[in-house]
Structures are given as structure tokens and as C-alpha cells.
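Shipment paperwork, digital attachment
Item: protein structure file
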Amino acid sequence: LLGQVLDQWFESEPLKATLATDAVIGAMASPHTPGSGYVLLHHVMGELEGRRGAWGYVAGGMGALSQAIACAAAARGAHIFAEKVVCHVLLGRDGQAQGVTLQDGTEVRSKLVLSNASPQITFLELIPQEQLPKDFVQRIRQADTRSPVTKINVAVDRLPSFLAAPNACDGRPLPHHQCSIHLNCEGTHLLHQAFTEATHGHPSSRPMIELCIPSALDPGLAPRGCHVVSLFTQYTPSVLAGGQPWDEQARNAYADTVFDCIEAYAPGFKASVIGRDILTPPDLERIFGLPGGNIFHGGMSLDQLYFARPAPSYSGYRSPVPGLYLCGSGAHPGGGVMGAAGRNAAQVALEDFRRL
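Attachment content:
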């Protein structure tokens, strides 16, 4: 349990709760859930430019990272088909992957296929079920993909001013504006309470909020004087109590709760809002293909990690279909913007390609 680890090392409850957020980030779990300690380890085990446990912002927004990867691939001769929906993986008579078919009927032929879609989309939608072992299909179907995350993107006409550290007169960003700001995290009991509400089908009445202001470091993301605020919030169940839909009313009611919470820490925040974009778990699934809205393509619990990700005997990136590889967050070592799964999968695919 994460709670036991934190109690062993720290005395300050606000500090313990702040660290605990990275143990439950993206996970339908509480700091008291067995295995939650690993999720914290997963988020702090890496490094950035030699600094252990450090995270960073991508200049130009996260889309700039995708563009950088695309440019590097194109420079090596890759052909990129943007905004093209893949319908299914092409299979030869011997069951070998031979490319993909796009929604418009175009066939893109290749000797190998690497999928960074989720295991659910890759194996349950893009491959005929009779081509896969039954126990493998059952494992993919039964994977825990619950997600507690609702992402809210906000445009504001001024920098939030927090009671704990009011803004300077010139309105310039202060050091805390350039960091990850955690709200409603004064105690781990608050996180557990928020989690418990979601397990009963109700959005948290006092949600955990991770607030970032990337424009404080990267002014090009917003007009002069304005800012973009990224809110990573939980807990929101994928399915609401009584089967109620996540309609506009439910979305806005939850967002209003989040904004009321921020207002208590930073009076005037609500008045500064120009626009907001609310993405609940079903929205994240529909728009980005995340199963259950899970940002990691599946829970990061110990039974779904290492040799068991995405299924026992298939953690080495190869799949039951010869020539088809899994290279996204649903593969080992799991979620996070680190590229490890892709790099590892590419090495395995190259090894096989040389044999071909």
C-alpha cells in the first residue's frame, strides 16, 4: 500500500497527499488500494536531462512531440497517412500480417505491422477473432480499463492568483505557476473519499485536481496576457449511477464543481474563464480510442504489468499474429510519455525483419 510507504518516510500529511496523487493518477484506485505504490514508482523512476524523477513540458504543446516524431520518421523515408482511419489488419493466407486497410478502401502493404492503438482496438476490432487464441481474446476482453479521469482544458484571460501565493503586481508568472499545482490534496483521506464516491457511480464532490499552466513557460500557446490551463481531475466513473448518461448537463455540473474548488484556492478564477473543453471518460474513449477512457490503455495494477502486459506470454511485443506487434501504452512497460514501449517494440520488429 502506498499509504504505508508514505507513513514510513514522511510526517507532513499535505506532503504525503501530494505525493500520493502520482500513485493514483489515471487509476481507479485510492492511496489505500494494494499496488498503488507501484504507480508512484512508475511516475518517478525515470529522468529528464539527467534529473531523476523530473517531468517537463513540450514546447508548442504535446502535439509538437508527435510532429517531431513524424518529422524524424519522414526524414528516414517514412510515408505518413494522416487522419486516415484503419479498418483492419491485412492478413495473408498463412495468417501473417501484410499491411492495413483504410476506411476509404486503400490498402497499405508492408512486411510488418506495429500498432500503438490499445490492445482492445488492435485485437478485438482490427483482427478477425478466429485468427487469435481464445484464451488470449478472453484476457484482452477482461482487462481492467476503468478510468477515473476527466480532463478539462481551459482558456483564461489572466493568470490565476492563489491565496497562498498571490500574483505580483506586473502579473508575470511566478515559480509555482510553472509547476504542477495539486488541489484538494491536503490529506490522503480526501483522495480516498473522492475515490469511494466514484466507486458508487458518483463524480467526486471534492475531486483531486492537478492544475498546470503550460503557457506560463511557453507564451506562444496563448495570446498576450492570456493563458491556457490544463486540469487533470478525478474521480469520475465511466458509468454514472443508475446508468445516467454523461450528457452536457452532467459534464457541466462536474466542471462547475471543479471550478468552484479552484475558486476557493484562487478567487477570481471563474471570472477569468473564456472557454472550457470537458473530456469525461467516455469522451476520451470516443475521441482518442482510449479503452474506458484509460490514459494508459489499461490499468497499471500489478496483475497487468511486466510479463502480464498485455497478456501472459505476450509481453515481448510480438502478438499471436505473425508480423503484428504492439508498441503502445498497452504493452510493457505501460503508460507515460517515455517512448519505451515503442523503442523496445521497434528493436524486436527489426530483429524479425532481418530474419525475413
